[in-house]
Design goal:
Bound molecules: pyridoxal-5'-phosphate
Radius of gyration: 22 Å
Helix content: 40-55%
Largest sheet: 7 strands, mixed
Number of strands: 17
Length: about 400
């Protein structure tokens, strides 16, 4: 072995220790140190290849190192990389226009750009406060992010408890319960209801079309804003540009986006639908240094343009349905169902062995995650092929075998 490659190997083995020593421990132990990616594949520092079925948690919609993103980034970086929001840029304006068009937003609508999903929800929360009403509703099992305002809207106690007091006035309703919603809205003092069309972090739990319609109807009746968090479900992930578009006439008053919007480059967005929501945030009441930065906006435009050129919405619907059918057709007694839409899928297991399946999958060269102990989540790049997905479906029963064996071994 040459001295150079010996040093490289030595360095690669050191990396987990260096990670532990240099980074705060919020994420636990990283599963691998990844070195590069291309299409739907990534390689770790040892050179092992993985099929990326998680896409950076529904982020890498065009996979890794997509030429359209590379080109947009380098062209924009050579032109204008960042300006303050005292100035406008063409990519920022074009991306806002594009999003309004894709969201079928009426005239008088507007966009605010942020850098992440949490930040987009913070801005939406501030819009809600500006109605002057004291109460805000969110759903049990919701996830809206980790910053204080977004966390106040997130139901999971383990995330909330260490950080109380959180911004107040938020109440949680059981998803799907129309009566509870009607009762909570009845006093007429609710500023907004926050909801995810499919609760991704909770284990890919879709709201029913009926409940989405009830959300729209009842919030409208009571002058309450309907705020849909499409951070995970938006930008084509479910086979529509936005998941709520699968149900006619449930256009929200405010929608938040991030994840897939930048295909891996950090960007978030808030869309305020119609004139009534447009003016809730007044000049000077909100801001950001990086939000809508020309680099991020140029990448967002490249992602959208590529999705249209390559007909990725249709593709996502088609391969997503095929995947769900193929998993169902396994008729594996340990799989109780497949939830979700398009390429946001939760595979429900009858036993709480999902984390062990994730470990077995990683060993076998597949990246996925377990949002809860009995669910496997898949959110691969939207460019993934049927053949790539089929390699996972074929391997899945063996992965569950390995996980069940490891779990039994561990229990002994
Ligand atoms: C990931 C996610 C967020 C938080 O986004 P960050 O970019 O991590 O701040 C908020 N809402 C939903 C539905 C998400 O999936």
């Amino acid at each position: 072995m040459s001295e150079q490659s010996a040093r490289t190997r030595h360095t690669a083995q050191d990396l987990p220790d260096r990670y532990r020593e240099a980074l705060l421990p919020v994420f636990g132990t990283p599963q691998r140190v990844l070195a590069r990616g291309e299409g739907c594949r990534v390689w770790d520092t040892a050179g092992t290849e993985y099929l990326d079925l998680l896409g950076g948690i529904a982020v890498n919609s065009l996979g890794h190192a997509h030429p359209a993103i590379l080109s947009a980034l380098s062209t924009q970086a050579q032109t204008l990389g960042h300006v303050s929001n005292f100035f406008a840029t063409i990519p920022q304006i074009e991306l806002a226009e594009r999003l309004l068009q894709l969201a079928e937003a009426p005239t008088g609508s507007g966009v605010f750009f942020a850098n992440s999903g949490s930040e987009a929800n913070e801005a939406a929360f501030k819009i809600a406060r500006r109605t002057g009403r004291p109460r805000v509703l969110a759903l049990v099992d919701s996830f809206h992010g980790r910053t204080m305002g977004a966390l106040a809207l997130t139901s999971k106690e383990a995330y909330r408890a260490p950080f109380e007091p959180l911004p107040g006035g938020v109440e949680f309703l059981p998803a799907g319960d129309e009566q509870a919603l009607a009762d909570a809205l009845a006093p007429g003092d609710v500023a907004a209801v926050f909801a995810e069309p499919i609760q991704g972090e909770a284990g890919v739990l879709p709201l029913s079309a009926d409940y989405l319609r009830a959300l729209r109807r009842l919030t409208r009746e009571h002058g309450t804003l309907l705020i849909l968090d499409e951070v995970q479900t938006g930008m084509g992930r479910t086979g529509n540009w936005f998941a709520h578009q699968a149900v006619p006439d449930v256009q929200p008053d405010v929608m938040t986006l991030a994840k897939g919007l930048g295909g891996g480059f950090p960007i978030g967005a808030v869309i305020a639908f119609g004139a009534a929501t447009h003016d809730l945030l007044r000049p000077g009441q909100h801001g950001t240094t990086f939000g809508g930065n020309p680099l991020a906006a140029a990448v967002g435009l490249a992602v959208i343009g590529t999705m249209i050129d390559e007909e990725l919405l249709q593709h996502t619907r088609r391969v997503g349905d095929q995947l769900a059918q193929a998993i169902t057709a396994l008729a594996d007694p340990r799989i109780s169902g497949v939830r979700g839409e398009g390429l946001l899928r939760g595979i429900a297991l009858t036993e709480p062995i999902a984390p062990a399946v994730v470990t077995a999958a990683l060993e076998a060269g597949f990246i996925l995650n377990a949002p809860d102990p009995s669910t496997l989540r898949l959110a691969p790049p939207l460019i993934i092929t049927e053949a790539e997905l089929a390699t996972f479906t074929a391997a899945l029963p063996g992965l569950i075998d390995a996980a069940a064996a490891a779990t039994a071994e561990g229990a002994r």
